From TrEMBL:
SUPFAM superfamilies for the chain: C-terminal effector domain of the bipartite response regulators, CheY-like
GO molecular function: DNA binding
Residues recorded as bearing 4-aspartylphosphate in the entry: 54
Protein name per Swiss-Prot or TrEMBL: DNA-binding response regulator
Length: 213
């Protein structure tokens, strides 16, 4: 069972998430919190696997709560679930340690899939968020690719990764094996000095290594 803690200051949102997640055989909602401080307290006592974290809340926001939780419990994964898709909210959330960033208009089935993928060690970003980050990049498209240490194939893999694709989907798109994809991703992390897929995607956006096509 994947133990989930729901954190949102709106009762209706929490009720809606609880109602749907309770129908999933592999997911157990172990608690609810209405702000960041409650989230920290409940995390200590409940030890969830995944936290669905709202971004803007009274007393303590989701970014501050994420920093506290990840510092003490690095193995607990946090998915931001919010209405904000702009760079000023997304980047601080990822830098705080969020493994996923999803918008509240996400389809329930897609949210469940995101929870399962984050539980499996992936980092998931809502496609709309990725697109907006790319569209709002500043001057990065003018940087020549030669300034970056990636091979052409690694850039291909990074481009697919930035679209939120899984290793299996990347392998199918590029006509290679999943093992080859894993090797390329490992090399990408090492060369770019990033820790996970989301940080790699942000690097790609910041340095013009991907497009909206």
């Amino acid at each position: 069972m994947i133990k989930v803690l729901i954190v949102d200051d709106h009762h209706v949102v929490r009720r809606g998430l609880l109602f749907f997640l309770k129908t999933q055989k592999d997911i157990e909602v172990v608690g609810e919190a209405s702000n960041g401080k409650e989230a920290i307290e409940l995390t200590a006592s409940l030890q969830p696997d995944i936290i669905l974290m709202d971004l803007v809340m009274p007393e303590m926001d989701g970014i501050q709560a994420t920093k506290h939780i990840k510092a003490k419990y690095p193995n607990i994964q946090i998915i931001m679930l919010t209405s904000f898709s702009d760079r000023d909210h997304v980047v601080p959330a990822i830098e705080a340690g969020a493994a996923g960033y999803q918008l509240k208009d996400i389809e329930p089935d897609e949210l469940v899939l995101a929870i399962r993928r984050v539980m499996d060690g992936e980092n998931i970003m809502h496609p709309q968020v990725t697109t907006q980050l790319i569209q709002n990049q500043e001057m990065t498209s003018e940087l020549p690719h030669m300034l970056h240490p990636l091979t052409n194939r690694e850039q291909d893999v990074l481009g697919e990764l930035t679209k939120g694709k899984s290793n299996k989907e990347i392998a199918s798109s590029l006509f290679v094996t999943e093992k080859t994809v894993k090797t390329h991703i490992s090399n990408i992390f090492a060369k770019l000095e990033v820790q996970d897929r989301t940080q790699a995607a942000l690097y790609a956006v910041k340095h013009g290594l991907t497009t909206t096509e």
